[in-house]
Design brief:
- By secondary structure, the chain is an alpha+beta fold.
- The chain has one domain (about 5-189).
- Helix content is about 40%, strand content about 25%.
- It is built from 5 helices and 5 strands.
- It has helices spanning about 5-20, 25-40, 55-65, 130-135, 160-189; strands spanning about 45-50, 70-80, 85-95, 100-105, 110-120.
- The longest helix has 30 residues, at about 160-189.
Length: about 190
Amino acid sequence: MRSFASIAVLLIAGLFSVIPHELTAGVREDAEAVIRQFYPGATALHFQPLPLDPNTQSAAEQSAGQAFLLDKLFHWEIRADEAVLGYAVLDNVMGKAQPITYLVLFTPDLKVQSVRVIRYREQYGGAIQESRWLEQFRGRDRHSGFAPGRHIDGISGATISVNAISRGVKRITVYMSRHSNDAVAADTE
């Protein structure tokens, strides 16, 4: 009979084996297709993995009440020649049993322009992928409310997914805002 500790290790290892640590299986291509569709005038997409700064990470996690699953985000700067049109950030949140991969598109001043689910792996709760529901995030920034049932409409049968995405969008929004402020402060020193 296996011990509880060895079963827990196997379960944790299995969980992290399904969380995409790198952009694989067409995820980057799907994210970039969404970005190009949203920004048809973009002339360049500058992609880079963005390692999480521990202080900024902690503040964003506390604000959203949700931990990051990875130690990085996947970040695009969207340009039309020299002008920055916006930013896109790809991340994962944990659904009931599987990760949900989603993309947040930001204005240059880091207000949410759009949210899109890139990979939904759960059996139930797929209604969070509908653009009508995701539209609720448009215009929100780090100071906005993201609480389901209060600021964000819930979806019957998708409570876990609604909470996961709402907290995830809040977490990324706070992280990017603080990261941007920290970068500006470092540039002026």
